[in-house]
Amino acid sequence: MKFSTRIGICCLVISIVLMQTSCEENCKETLFELKEIEAFPRTLDPANTGNALWLNSAGLSIDRLLVKLEFTKPVQVFFTANPNCPVVFENNNPVSELTLLSNQDFDTEHPAGTDLSEIIAFTDLKALMSKEVFMEEILNQTNISSYYFTFSRRPAEAKMHSLLMELRLADGKVIKTPAILVNLVP
Q1: Would the pTM of this model clear 0.90, i.e. be above it?
Q2: Percent over 70 (pLDDT), the chain
Q3: Which end of the chain lies in a sparser environment, N or C, as judged by fewer CB atoms within 10 Å?
Q4: H helices of 87-129, where?
Q5: Position 23 pLDDT exceeds 80
Q6: What DSSP character marks residue 109?
């Protein structure tokens, strides 16, 4: 092979490597913003589908309760023009705080109006995660539009609770679920 052909091939290889490297550096996040959240009480069923309705009149214990959360997360800016760039989602206005409130005393440590988010766990029906992991990995870094939470502690006594979840965004805006009535039974 001639020397000039070798140089040409080397230049071609180098330019391809440089183009791929520069494309990866130009990869951008796909931006979305959380606009709305809703909560729906569900019954943990043997099939683990999370779709069985929760009936307050059934008097089921709290360990059978799942609360399905549904999020409206429209994409603001979509970047995936380069097939070499992975799709990376990022919340344009991230959730900085999550609280769960009840109008009733849950137990002596959690009177009415105090944050119950420390005694819940989030789940996709396969694995549990903490509030901090849920906020970072699900609310702020994915386009997943529904998830569940369950209580990790039993209430002191059976009461009808009005539960409300509040999400505080980085810009100070607060998004709330409509209140749901749930009969929490130990």
Answers
A1: no
A2: 83
A3: N
A4: none
A5: no
A6: T
Extended beta strands in 36-145, E state: 36-43, 52-53, 65-72, 75-77, 89-91, 95-102, 120-123, 128-129
The strand pairing partners of 149, in sequence order, are 67, 122
Phi, psi for residue 142 in degrees, rounded to 5? -140, 165
Please tell me the class of the 27-184 domain: mainly beta
How far is 159 from 178, CA to CA, in rounded Å?
A: 19
Domain borders along the chain are: 27-184
The residue with tokens 């805006």 is 173
SS3 content of the chain, % helix, strand, coil (to 5): 20, 40, 40
Per-residue pLDDT band at 79 (split at 50, 70, 90): low
pLDDT digits (tens, 9 = 90+) for 97-124: 999 999 999 999 999 999 999 999 999 9
Residue 17: predicted pLDDT: 52
Sign of CA dihedral 92, 97, 98, 104: negative
What residues have CB less than 8 Å from 70, skipping those under 6 apart? 37, 38, 39, 40, 145, 146
